[in-house]
Amino acid sequence: MELFWKHKTFSELTTAELYRILKLRVDVFVNEQQCFYPELDDKDYHCSHLWAEINDEVVVYSRLVPPGLSYPEPSIGRIVTNPTFRGNNYGKLLIAQSIAYSYEKHGTTAIQIGAQTYLRKFYGSFGFEQVSDEYLDYGIPHIDMIKP
Fold it and tell me: Phi first, then psi: what are they for 73, rounded to 5°?
């Protein structure tokens, strides 16, 4: 099974692509993690969207956020792996691709993320460093991390 990567601005997304992306985000963040938060936060319009598919099914996804929208730096958010495809290192490929696209668009500036605390070591393997104390984001422990 080969991954087919896509990278689009919001206005370039087809309705079918947008539906598949939002469905995965809601399935994981709201349903699986039992986190009832405003998934549709009006930031999607201003971001670019990176994902990989296998047979029209979203495998991994991230939202690439421009500087000044979530943090002073560019950021990567809504990072998610489809439960069906976990354990195949697709998440690592996604983070590497997300960093590369961010550098391509914004230069090799710092990148900030709000990470679920249990993923500190995972993001650390890409050079992200913890820059905040742990805090609750809609009941889920998070930390802010920056890749200098």
Answer: -90, 165
Confirm whether pTM is higher than 0.90: yes
**Two tokens at 43?**
């930031």
Contact between 48 and 64 under an 8 Å Cβ cutoff? The reply is yes
What tokens appear for 125 in the block?
Answer: 């393997």
Residue 76 pairs in a beta bridge with: 64
User: How far is residue 118's CA from residue 96's CA, in Å, rounded to a whole number?
Assistant: 19
Q: CA 117 to CA 99: how far, in whole Å?
A: 20
Longest dimension (CA), the chain: 41
Cα–Cα distance measured from residue 82 to residue 3, given in angstroms and rounded to the nearest whole number = 13
Which stretch of DSSP H or E encloses residue 122?
A: helix 120-124
Structure tokens at 34: 């039992």
* Structure-block tokens of residue 101: 């696209």
CB atoms inside a 10 Å sphere around CB 96: 11
**Residue-wise pLDDT tens digits, 95-142:** 999 999 999 999 889 999 999 999 999 999 999 999 999 999 988 999
Q: Where are the beta strands (DSSP E) in the chain?
A: 4-9, 48-54, 57-65, 75-81, 111-116, 129-130, 135-137, 140-147
